[in-house]
Amino acid sequence: MERDDVYEYSLDTHHDEAQGKLIRKKIYFVTILLTAVTAVEVVLGAFIKQDPESWVWFTVKWAFILMTILKAWFIVMVFMHLKDERKVLRNIILVPYLIFMSYLIFIALTEGNAVHDTWMN
Amino acid sequence: MAGHTTHEIDTTVSWKGKVSPFRTSYGKLMMWFFLISDALTFGGLLVGYGFIRHAYTGKWPIGEEVFNSLPFLGHGYPLVYVALMTFLLIISSVTMVLAVEAGHRMDRKGVTKWMLATIIGGFFFLGSQAWEWSHFIHGSQLGRVQLNDGSLAYVHGHAATFESFEVIKAGSHHHVGDVVKDDLAHEYSHAVATGKVMSDGSIVLHDGSVAKVNVKEAAHIDELLIREAGAEYALNDKITGEEAERLYMEAVTSGEANRVVYGANMQQNEYGPKQYAQFFFFITGFHGFHVFSGVIINILIFFGVLRGTYHRRGHYEMVEKAGLYWHFVDLVWVFVFTFFYLI
């Protein structure tokens, strides 16, 4: 059943060929970026040895985490078009999730380390 | 996209409530809500993994050592295969976003082309994952050994190859004098894993018969790398040469089951703590299930595109909503790749 009282928001997203060209350019840029970051990750992963004691590994580990967040940011903002949505929608999706996950990550990893220390002693 | 939220919308034509939340369509908003709940599920799984991983610091397997094989080419290619899988998923995400872009221009041909490419990419990823699982489950040729002092060690070297097994004591299936020539490597590793290798080198077969082993090329143990300390050996000790061969054979001929473990299942695995394989199966399995359902959804939407359903409707929002789900699957893999394989 068609409802004529519902505004078709999807029509707002329509664009012409000229705009499409710019959007595709952006998509290709993100493609190259995601591929390059993944390649860097694989090379680092293959050549830097894991070692909880070494500062090299510590740096690489954090580089992995930052590169992951970078990739995730581009996927969500460009591929999932969240950047083109209203700011309030963007915030309502991201902010509560990020606050909750930061808390969960902090508490679980702290507990994990505590369990490890108990087993060691 | 362009001009999406810039102009005012007459509230008399909005949702029944007269005000449209976030000025977005109902379907897209509900897809986002679903994706948030799914992201919480995956977040919970990965955080649970992080908890166990931190608790087992030092004993946890290292990604580039476990995943270092390619189909047909063997070992020595750390992370290359999983990098290819990641690349595949990124590319199929790109073709999806190109389908969405084509939809915004009402380019039916473009949508058809890019949707088809996305579906093919999805099938390739699923196939890659099947190979990855099979490789993980079967494991390496020599497995992991528990030495007499209780320590656990990775075994590096070459497995033996066999001519035949000659039955010297009858079982429920074979008679004395039978010569077995099929599936020898598998039969032998089964005997090793269940502790059915005698001190003279003969083995007990599946049916209970005892057979003399005719070796083509003997096993060669290069190195035992201690992964869990025992009474005598400490973590990361390396034992080489004849000592390594002697300790390995001691374990193989001990008569005890599970002294040598090959591959992985839910109870034990050769790579590390049993939780490692459990999380591997659950997280990559749950993600793989998402890929699978994503492919099915994409196929259904693809039929809609072919039949012109969305073209008649005047917009391709359905492709956009399926696209959101598909990108989310890619997004999850980005995190699985980092936290399971790299760190």
Distance between the termini of chain B: 36 Å
Global shape of chain B: elongated
Average pLDDT for all residues of chain A? 90
The main pleated sheet of chain B reads as:
5 strands, antiparallel
Identify low-pLDDT runs of chain A. none
Pair with the most extensive interface? Answer: A-B, 64 and 76 residues
Low-confidence stretches of chain B: 1-6
What class would the helix/strand composition of chain A place it in?
mainly alpha
Rg of chain A: 21 Å
Number of domains of chain A: 2
Helix vs. strand class of chain B: alpha+beta
Quaternary status: heterodimer
Number of helices of chain A: 3
Provide the β-strand percentage band of chain B.
Answer: 5-15%
Strand order of the largest sheet of chain B: 10-9-4-3-11
Amount of beta strand of chain A = under 5%
Largest sheet of chain A: none
Helix content percent band of chain A:
over 70%
Tally of extended strands of chain A? 0
Summarize the structure.
The complex is a heterodimer of chains A (121) and B (343). Chain A is an all-alpha fold and 121 residues long.
Highlighted features:
heterodimer, A: 121 residues, mainly alpha, 3 helices, 74% helix, flat, B: 343 residues, alpha+beta, 5-stranded antiparallel beta sheet, 4-stranded antiparallel beta sheet, 9 helices, 52% helix, elongated, transmembrane (chain B), Cyt_c/ubiquinol_Oxase_su3 (chain B)
Could you describe the 3D structure shown?
The complex is a heterodimer of chains A (121) and B (343). With 121 residues, chain A is mainly alpha-helical. Chain A has helices at 17-47, 55-79, 87-120. The termini of chain A are far apart. In chain A, helix 1 (17-47) packs antiparallel against helix 2 (55-79). Chain A folds into two domains: 20-84; 86-121. Chain A contains three helices and no strands. Chain A is flat and about 65 Å long. Chain B has 343 residues and is α+β, with helices and mostly antiparallel strands. In chain B, 52% of the residues lie in helices and 14% in strands. Chain B contains nine helices and eleven strands. In chain B, the strands form three sheets. A five-stranded antiparallel sheet of chain B has the order 10-9-4-3-11, with helices on one face. In chain B, a hairpin with a 5-residue loop joins strand 7 (203-204) and strand 8 (210-217). In chain B, helix 1 packs antiparallel against helix 7 and helix 7 (274-307) packs antiparallel against helix 9. The longest helix of chain B has 34 residues, at 274-307. Chain B starts with 25 loop residues before the first helix and ends with a helix. The relative contact order of chain B is 0.15. The model of chain B is unreliable at 1-6 (pLDDT under 50). Chains A and B meet through helix 1, helix 2 and helix 3 of A and helix 1, helix 3 and helix 9 of B.
